[in-house]
TrEMBL record:
CDD domains documented for this protein: CYP78
Gene Ontology biological process terms from the UniProt entry: reproductive structure development
The UniProt record lists the keyword RNA-binding: no
Annotated InterPro entries: Cyt_P450, Cyt_P450_CS, Cyt_P450_E_grp-I, Cyt_P450_sf, Cytochrome_P450_78A
Membrane-traversing stretches: 66-84
UniProt KW keywords: Heme, Iron, Membrane, Metal-binding, Monooxygenase, Oxidoreductase, Transmembrane, Transmembrane helix
Name of the protein described by the UniProt record: Cytochrome P450
The organism of origin for this protein: Vigna unguiculata (Cowpea)
Length: 578
């Protein structure tokens, strides 16, 4: 919209000076406003700028200090109007982008240029977003800016269902680190299309199907047994156990075994120590880089001045290391391929190498897919198990009840198997309650991206290219969704005791820690089977107590996943003699 045409003649009799003519020229007034991104209403009221010379009764504005002050004030107001646009949402929501629907999307304006970046770059963005949404009555949907990226977040299960299940939200925004580490060729970040569908199909059939998960049980049990041994050793040596390291080792072995056909147990001599250390180091570095808050993902120019974590540089070192490592494993598998038959317990490398015709993948794509599995599969299961154990230690009666359930199902056996685990409803309730109280992806790990303008049923419209987040933490802590949301109460999921039946695999958005829709976590069954098996064996083998010298601290920190800020340290009293 153009500024209104000036109609009143200036009372000034002589010609304006050149600077004045610039200001008094209609076309310049428009371009100045446009440059500043002023909303049309400010243009409508800007006509009085042209009367300034009359007010000042002067021909040269620059020589009049009063006018200079007024001009500076106008410019400042214009700048502020540009930086804090109307309607909320902040700098990325200028020009009424949050008002495209019947109902506008409310949201905080944040800081000019940066939006909410300063509020969200610390450890607990899910809590901050939940408080802002609640304060602005924007829990259904809130618009905000992360630098130049427009973002919406919902803390409402109905809107969450619409977003996660919509085909228009089936892409993800790709972080710089993910791109540099090749993840844009893997399942999680590949754009929604034929390539992504192929990867999902192959992974669902050959890695995550119930048959394959069952076929890999012996390997899973090997890792679990090694973990139990290491825990017993640490307890007898130190008098306490730091659980996270054992869980991470078991998780790494579990995923390395299923994906690469390699396991690294301490008593195994066949793999050299250097390789184990190399894998651990690469995984650690990858976690750090992918979990790091990288300013240049949101304010691209900032990396020229400010890159405190050296994300770009570190990625460019890690990516070739990963490639070299995985390529070596691919070559070994290629050499052995003629001597192996594919079966249900084949590792994922063999499966990917066996693909033919249209399904055949380039080496670089295989490397990306395999590497992603290591990343996604390792910390998720370890950190979730750590949260479960922390709650069991703090809630002694829940631990005791679980042990009774185990005794009833397992009897005198020292080992709990996958077949036993499915007969343990109280264990299932404990895992669900932990996922509710401590969702390890409180903002569902990686966000979604709208591929077109999306009309929601509540009258709001999310424009194309908007990042969409679901604040699962806010939903699972909402007292209007969950009674006494801060209390750890597995009984709320025990049906025979009046509890609710909730499908945590994406069917019920009141508790969807694995996401939902076509991009729901494909590793959800593997994750749940693994965590349940570990918890069952940890509780069956040991009685767990709080270490009073290091009390359990439920403080959290959000990195790649939401983890205990202070890793769990506890006392493990063995229940069997061998
Ligand atoms: C207990 C553990 C786990 C939790 C809580 C979890 C959670 C999630 C969440 C919230 C998402 C995003 C879903 C969405 O956008 O709707 C996701 C995606 C994904 N997860 Fe998991 N996950 C777990 C375990 C695993 C495991 C064990 C693997 C593989 C070994 C895995 C592989 C993936 C992959 C590949 C994606 C991307 C899917 C896509 O974009 O198409 N996850 N996970």
């Amino acid at each position: 919209m153009h500024a209104p045409t000036y109609t009143k003649p200036l009372p000034c009799t002589s010609q304006p000076s050149s600077s004045l003519s610039l200001i008094a020229s209609n076309s310049v007034s428009i371009s100045l406003s446009t440059l500043m991104g002023l909303p049309s209403s400010s243009l409508d009221t800007s006509w009085w700028v042209f009367t300034l010379p009359a007010i000042a009764r002067t021909q040269n504005l620059t020589h009049n200090p009063l006018l200079l002050i007024i001009l500076t004030a106008i410019l400042s107001i214009a700048l502020l109007a540009w930086a804090f646009p109307r309607g909320g949402g902040g700098p990325a929501w200028r020009n009424g982008k949050n008002q495209m629907g019947r109902v506008p999307i409310p949201g905080p304006k944040g800081v000019p240029l940066f939006g909410l970046l300063f509020s969200l770059n610390h450890a607990l963005p899910h809590r901050t977003l939940a408080s802002i949404a609640s304060a602005l009555s924007a829990t259904k949907l809130m618009a905000f800016s992360l630098g130049s990226s427009p973002v919406v977040v919902t803390s409402n299960p109905h809107v969450a269902r619409e977003i996660l299940n919509s085909p228009h939200f089936a892409d993800r925004p790709v972080k710089q680190s993910a791109k540099s580490l090749m993840f844009n060729r893997a399942i999680g970040f590949a754009p929604n299309g034929a390539y992504w569908r192929l990867l999902r199909r192959v992974a669902s059939t050959h890695l995550f199907s119930p048959r394959r998960i069952l076929a890999h049980e012996p390997g899973r049990w090997l890792d679990c047994a090694a973990m139990l041994r290491a825990i017993a050793q640490e307890q007898s040596k130190n008098g306490f156990v730091c659980l996270r390291k054992h869980l991470q080792d078991a998780a790494l072995n579990n995923v390395m075994g299923t994906v690469f056909g390699r396991r690294y147990h301490d008593q195994d001599e066949c793999y050299n120590r250097r390789e184990i250390e190399e894998v651990r180091d690469m995984v650690r570095e990858g976690f750090d880089l992918l979990g790091a808050f990288n300013w240049s993902d949101y304010v691209p120019w900032i990396s020229f001045f400010y890159d405190p974590l050296r994300v770009r540089e570190r990625c460019s070192v890690l990516a070739p290391r990963v490639k070299k490592f995985v390529k070596r494993i691919l070559e070994e598998h290629r050499i052995m391929a003629p001597f192996k038959e594919l079966s249900d317990d084949s590792d994922f490398v063999d499966v990917l190498l066996s693909l033919e015709g249209e399904d055949k993948l380039e080496d670089d794509d295989i490397i990306a897919v395999l590497w992603e599995m290591i990343f996604r599969g390792t910390d998720t299961t370890a950190l979730l198990t750590e949260w479960v154990m922390a709650e069991l230690i703090l809630n002694e009666e829940v631990q005791t009840r679980l042990r009774h359930e185990l005794r009833r199902v397992v009897g005198n056996k020292t080992v709990v198997t996958d077949a036993d685990v499915i007969k343990l409803p109280y264990l299932e309730a404990i895992v669900k309650e932990t996922l509710r109280l401590h969702p390890i992806g409180p903002l569902l790990s990686w966000a979604r991206l709208s591929t077109s303008d999306v009309h929601l049923s509540n009258g709001m419209v999310v424009p194309a290219n908007t990042t969409a987040m679901v604040n699962m933490w806010a939903i699972t802590h909402d007292p209007s969704v969950w009674h006494e949301p801060l209390v750890f109460k597995p009984e709320r999921f025990v049906k025979s005791e009046g509890g609710v039946e909730v499908d945590v695999r994406g069917g019920d958005l009141r508790l969807a820690p694995f996401g939902a829709g076509r991009r729901v976590c494909p590793g959800k069954n593997l994750g749940l089977v693994t965590v349940s098996l570990w918890v069952a064996n940890l509780v069956h083998r040991f009685q767990w107590f709080e270490d009073m010298a290091n009390p359990v601290d439920l403080a959290e920190v959000l990195k790649l996943s939401c983890e205990m800020k202070n890793p769990l340290r506890a006392l493990a009293s063995p229940r069997f003699t061998n």
